Amino acid sequence: ILVLCVSGMRAETVRYSVPEEAGRGSFVANIAKDLGLTGEELLARQARVVPEGEKQYLQLNQHTEDLVVREQMDREKLCGQSEPCLVRFEVLLESPLQSFRAEVRVTDINDHAPMFLNKEIVLKIPESAMPGTRFLLESAHDPDVGNNSLQHYSISSNDYFLVYTQRRSDGGRYAELLLDRALDREQQAEVAFIITAVDGGNPPRSGTALIRVVVLDINDNIPVFTQSLYKVSVMENSSQDTLVVVVSASDLDAGTNGEIVYSIVKNSEENFETFKINPETGQIRLKKALDYEETKTYEIDVQALDGGGLSTHCKVEVQVKDVNDNAPEVIITSLTSTLSEAAPPNTVVALFNVRDRDSGDNGRTTCELTGEQPFRITLLAADAYALVTSETLDREQVEEYNVTVRARDEGSPALSASKTLLVRLLDVNDNAPTFTQAIYTMVMSENEPAGRSLGHLSAADPDAGENARVRYSLVPPPTGTLAAASFVSVDAESGTVRSLRPLDYEKVPAFEVTVRAADGGSPPLSAQAVLRVIVRDENDNAPVLLHPPPDSSAAGELVPRWAPSGYLVAKVVAVDADAGQNAWLSYELAKATEPGLFRVGLHSGEVRTARAVTERDAARQRLIVLVRDHGQPPRSATATLAVALVDDFSDAFHQLGHDPASGQQPQIAEEEMLTTYLIASLCCVSSLFLLSVLVLTANTLCKARVRAELPPPSCYADGDFASDGVGVGSTGTLSPAYRYEMCLTSGSGRSEFQFLKPILP
């Protein structure tokens, strides 16, 4: 979760500005526009402003999604004299979590006029002061910065004094009063005028104070400090009220003119806030703690004023001594956040410096790495280091490293700081894809339309990016083998296997192809697997009759009148090119002249008598046998059998010579034919009588001659009668256990055709 959150953060900082004292609800920026989002997206993702400090000066307008001022900001309270004055915050979005850093620069407006701490400044100047003498005045204070701060001083018109604006080393400005003309107490005992401090704002602001110059009677000795410059040092961890130095001045005058009062000249607010002086003893003490890292040296102007109004000045230079109160800082100057896993040892990952704001031993530092990782630190120069690899890397084992650099100083006690660097490894194509299975088995239905999905291939590559992007393909088969690659296709991206054309199970029950998975590296690496496709049979073939032949109108069978129940009449033989249940055949009697006389074996296809044959049964029987498979839906075929019931086999040809199909003609057609024959017979009866006498005579003569010429009778055993279409040979419809013997005389159409007996094995 942390990785996902960090990846959603944006490092860049958006900057805005707003003038100080802007009213509540004042517009700062259009956050939605700057972030590239719509107002609805900000609302849906619950955008909110999180300040860096405890107080929230800014907020999001829920209606316009603008960043507006929540509370007025006083730049002087927020930042004092520091510039620029920045208010930092973050805009947090959810779903997914994102953070946008932003900062608002509070620009200074000229909302403060320069102000003197004392509205009335009294100067006591002896009348003996020479023209050209300069007098240091109390400085005005303006909390604004830049051009809005105090720029110059001026005084109202008078006969004795001029004012000059001077600049200190820190940029502050102070006023010096110049005596332009000698004073004469007898003429004018006091000179009063207005001093004005003006800032650079637009419009400029100003502050005034009244300067009263009291002309003193001659005090010809001024106080004299024992040193014009006092140099002292103070530890930065010194507590409040610590004695810094004692200044001392003496005055040769007597009485009140010799009484000295010490004070710190208010030419620097920082000095005034940091130090205090005892006006009688000259002891300078701390008003607050010192910080060596902020200010290393202070220059204090101390004034000694005698009772006669004469004064002198000295400087006190305070050197702040460092103590080990700052931990080292690790400053990254260059970082390679992504590193190839093929990088050799000693590859530079980062350059960094270590800085300690302390001095001496407190500022001397050493560096080390925490934990066992394939990196080490190399010293380049003083406080400059390089982070380099110490051994070969493998992204597949560790994708990224959090390298912690710890810096420690040599102070007492020692202080340390750590910096964690995130180093991600870039992938190199050093791993081939791996199939999840060595053999994939998929099933497709027979006659399945092209384009159907049969399944998916899956291969994984532990590399990343393009090196892990697996593409699938079929390996071309060797020349001269079955072109199974033309039956299926593999989607290069998803590995989906699809059929290219319908297949016939009876021709191709199964096939195998070799598939390849190649990654996107350069050069690419690949692996192979076997794809085995099994064609599932569909019921697309109807049963095919082998006997009786499907091209014959009806197969003729002979059944004796004395046939008992269960007598084998014929056997219907059929095959189905399908497989499994689709090829399981069942037989049933679909239609019969006398349904109760015959039955068909469900699985054998044997047609047998269901009861004994009687004299009442019709001589010609027509049977329709239905052959059905067990597919879904089932397919079927029909076989038609013509059965002749005979007393003996002498009239077998006569019975079989009639087309059994004629029995299927309508009764009306038979009656019409019979009527036609009767009419023709009645019309020709006389002619036929005469013709019959002639034919009888000729027939008698012919028989006598033929009998004299005939050879002995011939007997037909098993297999000799098959060609006649009756089906009593080895390929007939009867069981091999049944055989017929027939004796016929050649040339006789209705001779003795005698049914003898079954020949048992």
TrEMBL record:
Q: Which organism is it from?
A: Vidua chalybeata
- UniProt xrefs under PANTHER family: CADHERIN-87A (PTHR24028), PROTOCADHERIN BETA-1 (PTHR24028:SF118)
What's a single GO BP term from this record?
A: homophilic cell adhesion via plasma membrane adhesion molecules
The record describes the protein's role as:
Potential calcium-dependent cell-adhesion protein. May be involved in the establishment and maintenance of specific neuronal connections in the brain.
Q: Which domain of life is it from?
A: Eukaryota
A Pfam family assignment: Cadherin
Could you tell me the keywords of this UniProt record? Calcium, Cell adhesion, Glycoprotein, Membrane, Repeat, Signal, Transmembrane, Transmembrane helix
Point out the gene that encodes the protein: Pcdhb8
Q: Name one GO cellular component term.
A: plasma membrane
Listed GO MF terms: calcium ion binding
Residue ranges annotated as transmembrane are: 674-697
Protein name, UniProt field: PCDB8 protein
Q: What's its membrane topology?
A: Single-pass membrane protein
Q: Which residues form the Cadherin domain?
A: 10-116, 117-225, 226-330, 331-435, 436-545, 559-662
The record's subcellular location field reads: Membrane
